[in-house]
Write a structure and sequence with these properties.
This protein is mainly alpha-helical. The chain has four helices and no strands. It holds the Pfam family DUF6809.
């Protein structure tokens, strides 16, 4: 088994790419939100281009804050596993 440090160095571990919703309910909620957001954005684009672009910017900021928190938590857990591996080697 390859060590965590070796996997991290070789790019086999990428916490930002590994995030997935934890529960089926969360995944379904995200799908509903994305579908509704898409429908709203399409309707808005047809009526007010400037407001549509502002809406997209706000949505991108919101997504980043959520993902950043999850990535931090996953990164912290990865760091803790690395420390355990170092202590045990």
């Amino acid at each position: 088994m390859e060590s965590i440090l070796q996997q991290l160095y070789e790019g086999k571990i990428s916490p930002a790419e590994q995030y997935r919703p934890r529960t089926e309910e969360h995944r379904e909620a995200v799908e509903r939100i994305l579908k509704s957001r898409g429908e709203f954005a399409r309707a808005l684009k047809e009526t007010d281009q400037a407001l549509y672009e502002k809406f997209l910017r706000i949505m991108e900021e919101d997504d980043l804050s959520f993902e950043t928190g999850e990535m931090f938590i996953d990164g912290f857990k990865l760091g803790a596993r690395m420390m355990l591996e170092i202590m045990n080697s």
